[in-house]
What does this fold into?
Amino acid sequence: MNERKAKLQRIYKIIMLLILTIVITFTVTTLFIYKEIKNMYTSEILGDNVSSDEIGLLKTLENFKSILEAKYIGEINEEDLIEGALKGYVAGLGDPYTEYLGKSEMEDFNEETSSQYVGIGVYVSNINNQIYVAGVMEGSPAEEAGIKAEDIIKKIDGVEYKGEELEKATAVLKDEEGTTVNITIERDGEELNVQVTRKKIKVEHVSSEMLENDIAYLQIDSFDSGVASSFKEKALDLINKGAKKIIIDLRNNGGGIVSEATDIADLFVEKDKTILITKGKGENDEKLTKAKIDPVIKDIPLVILVNENTASASEILAGALKELYGAKIVGKTTYGKGVIQTVYTLSDGSGLKITTDEYYTPNHNQINKVGIKPDYEVDLTSYTEDTQLNKAIEVLNK
It folds into this structure.
């Protein structure tokens, strides 16, 4: 009896060992297959060159999402969360010029650079922390409503704005065509309320006039699409009318499309001369932008007006004409934005604006965080007495 019992115990142990082996084999195989499937899935979504940091980022975002869905008492908009995450990821570079643009922001960006937008038609600037109307476009809604140059915009739809909030205020002035905006302006110490109906405006970024002593004055407020062509037309028109000297006003011009600036320099510079030097990320990634045509403006004395807000493409033009044409610079040291951004449009209509190049003047002088120093440094206290323009005229009349 004992022998039979011992035999049964041996058989039981063998059976249990077989079962344990099967369980272990199944578990190991399952884990292996899971890992392989997960790797295949990650590779399919993110590509083959996925780092552990990227996988960690995905896990963190998944954890955040789970916690928010479980605990957050407010409403969750998944699209807003994704856009915020993308903006934050790019902002982590610490570069003020590299940014993720959502779809609506990308639309605004394209609108601005196309020289067309819906708004009221004023040129504004920040003077003494006030929003100063530097000019009103001819035939614009602002002109029709009675807004004049030198007015100060105090409130928009009842909200007060300071000069430091200039960008925010100009964004509010833009909206759908046909909508109205109430603006409180200050003129000669008195406040006036005007109602303006927004409409589509074709922006003319180049203004021109003939000053005394045959001086052609051309102001460029931005380098958007078509500016070089407009400048050429207006400059040659004044020269044909007898202009013997030129002033180019680049004050408060924050830049724009680089090729528009180099095309204007092309009008003055000898063919094949290097107008601009750009250097990208690669060690040998240097590009030269050369003059493509024979100069159409020659031997005419030139002065360029600049200030602390003259930046980017404006500095490219000022630097090229100073070094290659002998232009004199009057005003204040420029902003010093010597880097160029490339804009990539993504499939969903959003965009990525990336700092891809640093640029240098034809003589290899650095602009970034340095700026261009004027030949004649002149302060400007107000536009009613334009001391910088007066100095430019004085320089040309010597």
User: Anything to note?
Assistant: Confidence is low (pLDDT under 50) at residues 30-47. The chain is about 35% helix and 25% strand. The longest helix spans residues 2-46.
